[in-house]
């Protein structure tokens, strides 16, 4: 019966805090249990890596340009650095695709240790800017899965 209770406190803390910093064991696998609890609570998760995101605000909430890597000489190209491709905001599209009965969207960022303090502060404010969006950032590894508010983690 204890297996059914594991993770319920995590879902409740996420609902009240909005953004959580988590420590996960390096061998992995534990976060899947908590993602299943979030699914059972009515949330949809969007797992992503924090590496290479660039400007978080532009990547998540605005149309932004991306230049693919230059892999060789292209003929008849207008610019030497390559074309810019524009992508829609990630969170807005994911939130629009949610079913009406869903509680919201959880942005689950792995490798969050590469994020700066300013980027973590923005992620902690994101649930106040968009109440249907919650944030979980894996900030470090530990022997057991634990979490705390992202605001408390930032100090």
Automatic annotation (TrEMBL):
It catalyses: a plastoquinone + NADPH + (n+1) H(+)(in) = a plastoquinol + NADP(+) + n H(+)(out); a plastoquinone + NADH + (n+1) H(+)(in) = a plastoquinol + NAD(+) + n H(+)(out). One of its GO terms (cellular component) is plasma membrane-derived thylakoid membrane. It is a peripheral membrane protein. Keywords: Membrane, NAD, NADP, Oxidoreductase, Plastoquinone, Quinone, Thylakoid, Translocase, Transport. Its EC number is 7.1.1.-. Pfam families: NdhN. The keyword Nucleotidyltransferase does not apply. It is found in: Cellular thylakoid membrane. GO terms for molecular function: oxidoreductase activity, acting on NAD(P)H, quinone or similar compound as acceptor; quinone binding. Its main location: membrane. InterPro entries: NAD(P)H-quinone_OxRdtase_su_N. NDH-1 shuttles electrons from an unknown electron donor, via FMN and iron-sulfur (Fe-S) centers, to quinones in the respiratory and/or the photosynthetic chain. The immediate electron acceptor for the enzyme in this species is believed to be plastoquinone. Couples the redox reaction to proton translocation, and thus conserves the redox energy in a proton gradient. Cyanobacterial NDH-1 also plays a role in inorganic carbon-concentration. Belongs to the complex I NdhN subunit family. NDH-1 can be composed of about 15 different subunits; different subcomplexes with different compositions have been identified which probably have different functions. This is NAD(P)H-quinone oxidoreductase subunit N. It comes from Gloeomargarita lithophora Alchichica-D10. The gene is ndhN.
């Amino acid at each position: 019966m204890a297996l059914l209770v594991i993770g319920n406190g995590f879902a409740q803390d996420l609902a009240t805090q909005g953004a959580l910093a988590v420590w996960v064991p390096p061998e992995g696998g534990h976060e899947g249990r908590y993602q299943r609890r979030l699914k059972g609570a009515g949330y949809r998760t969007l797992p992503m890596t924090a590496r290479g995101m660039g400007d978080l605000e532009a990547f998540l909430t605005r149309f932004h340009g991306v230049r693919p890597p230059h892999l060789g000489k292209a003929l008849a190209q207008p610019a030497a650095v390559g074309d810019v491709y524009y992508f829609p905001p990630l969170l807005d599209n994911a939130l629009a695709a949610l079913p009406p009965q869903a509680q919201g969207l959880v942005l689950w960022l792995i490798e969050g240790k590469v994020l700066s303090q300013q980027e973590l502060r923005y992620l902690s404010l994101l649930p106040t800017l968009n109440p249907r969006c919650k944030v979980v950032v894996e900030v470090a590894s530990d022997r057991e899965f634990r979490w705390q508010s992202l605001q408390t983690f930032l100090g």
